[in-house]
């Protein structure tokens, strides 16, 4: 009789430990899919949007800088804004602009 009670106690303990283990695993999986994964995806989305905004601002600044340099050269040459420049000056300004754009894409991939 005593052996049977011991065996029953061991079986109950084994069932309890197994049930508790399954419950812990189930709660862990639920936490991952319900809380962690959505938060991670939201953070990635926010990071992507921030990166895109910074990239657009950087490219916009590069374009403004190109226009300012262009107009400065026009002014130095005694011409009006958005004047026609020599091929040499045109190429140099565009080269600087292209380098600025490349830098933007390096900073904000």
How is this structure best described in words?
This protein has 109 residues and is mostly helical. The chain has a domain at 50-109. Helix content is 88%, strand content 0%. The protein has two helices and no strands. It has helices at residues 2-76, 87-107. Helix 1 packs antiparallel against helix 2. The longest helix has 75 residues, at 2-76. The protein starts with a helix and ends with a helix. 0% of the residues are buried.
Q: Give average pLDDT, whole number.
A: 92
- The run of helices and strands is HH
Strand content: under 5%
Amount of helix = over 70%
Instruction: Tell me the radius of gyration.
Output: 33 Å
Runs in which pLDDT lies below 50 for 5 or more consecutive residues are none
Q: What coarse outline follows from CA principal-axis ratios?
A: rod-shaped
Count, helices: 2
Largest sheet at a glance?
Answer: none
**Distance linking N and C termini:** 74 Å
Task: Tell how many strands the DSSP assignment holds.
Answer: 0
Structural class: mainly alpha
Topology:
Blueprint: H1 2-76, H2 87-107
Helix pairs in contact: 1-2
């Amino acid at each position: 009789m005593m052996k049977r009670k011991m065996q029953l106690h061991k079986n109950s303990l084994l069932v309890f430990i197994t049930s508790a283990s399954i419950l812990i695993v189930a709660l862990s999986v639920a936490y991952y899919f319900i809380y962690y994964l959505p938060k991670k995806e939201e953070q990635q989305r926010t990071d992507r949007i921030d990166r895109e905004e910074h990239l657009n601002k950087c490219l916009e600044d590069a374009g403004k800088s190109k226009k300012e340099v262009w107009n400065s050269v026009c002014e130095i040459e005694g011409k009006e804004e958005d004047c026609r420049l020599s091929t040499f000056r045109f190429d140099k300004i565009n080269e600087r602009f292209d380098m600025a754009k490349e830098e933007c894409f390096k900073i904000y991939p």
